[in-house]
Design a protein that fits this description.
alpha+beta; Arc Repressor Mutant, subunit A; 2 domains; two-stranded antiparallel sheet; 14% strand
């Protein structure tokens, strides 16, 4: 029996949210958009996602008001998170932390986030999305991400992975 495409029999906000972000690849597309990936080709290369699937996910996220499609050059579009999309950051961050703590293994994940605009000097957001130094929930644009050294994984060589090897503020477009 094939799985349904929606949760129309569920009267629940979580079910409605899953209709937007619950498809395979969608959260990874959103993660990359938070990292500053905006162009179709860059998303496709970094995620190793089939072209048709990425097209479908981007169209659905635009229709849901999570992403905005902008023309940045003749015949070339970019995808930018809307205010609605930015509201998904705590969920994306929490799922990444869950993976770090329970699925990656000893030492946690490969990436750390720091509250770069913290009035108290900033700190890594190791346990949750709240900054331990100032006690606020920083906006994604106030966060810097960096890759940890010595994770033992073979580094990828696509343009996005190469850019994300250096500290990078979230939402800042990647070159």
């Amino acid at each position: 029996m094939p799985l349904g495409q929606n949760y129309d029999r569920q009267d629940c906000a979580l079910a409605r949210a899953l209709e937007v972000v619950g498809e395979r690849w969608t959260l990874l597309v959103l993660r990359d958009c938070f990292f500053g990936v905006r162009r179709f080709a860059d998303l496709r290369a970094h995620l190793d996602i089939p072209r048709a699937v990425l097209s479908e996910r981007l169209a659905m996220l635009v229709d849901a008001g999570v992403l905005e499609r902008r023309n940045y050059a003749p015949g070339r579009d970019e995808y930018v998170l809307t205010d609605t999309g930015l509201d998904l950051w705590p969920a994306v961050f929490s799922l990444a932390r869950f993976g770090d703590r329970h699925l990656v293994g000893p030492g946690g994940g490969r990436r750390r986030f720091r509250h770069a605009d913290c009035p108290a000097g900033g700190a890594d957001l190791a346990a949750g999305a709240v900054c331990p130094a100032c006690g606020t929930l920083p906006a994604p644009s106030s966060l810097e991400t960096r890759l940890l050294d010595g994770t033992g994984q073979t580094p990828r060589d696509d343009a996005v992975s190469l850019s994300l090897r250096r500290p990078h503020r979230l939402l800042t477009p990647l070159p």
